[in-house]
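Attaching the record inline, Q. Sequence:
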Amino acid sequence: MVRRSTIGLTSLLVSLAAVPCLAQGTGNVHDEIELTRQEVRANRQDIIRRLLDLTEQQSQAFWPIYRSYQEESAKLGDQRVVLIETYLKNSVTLTDEQAKELLSQSFKLREKQLSLQKKYVGKYQKVIPGVKVARLYQIDNVLDAVIQANLHAQMPMAGDSTAQ
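Structure, as predicted:
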């Protein structure tokens, strides 16, 4: 079971990694980010469904809680999109003060995301076994890491005038 889950996670992550976070070339960055977010949300739920292996009773209790978590997480994602768009608009001409402010906002968003995860762990533990809760957070953290890596690989470095 564990080996199957590991293989399944690896193959699903490879397919998710193929989702472009920011398409190369011109276009509306906001629309590109939103399209990617929608695709990631759909893939994320499918990956979690496959790897958690919940019973019917567990599924009925778990998914409404998870959807509520995703709704709250999406609000933080909206704030991240604004932060990314601000960064992309200013990355070449970024001042020290702007850089400090963007970093501060980024740290605050990460803290909010961690607080949200902590808020929901108890809710999950009421409806699914602790091992499955741990697996959920493991999957969620791996997915977030892949998405972040894709996103950051496509973003210009601060102050890099060659990225234009």
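The first helix runs from residue 2 to 17. The radius of gyration is 18 Å.

More tomorrow.
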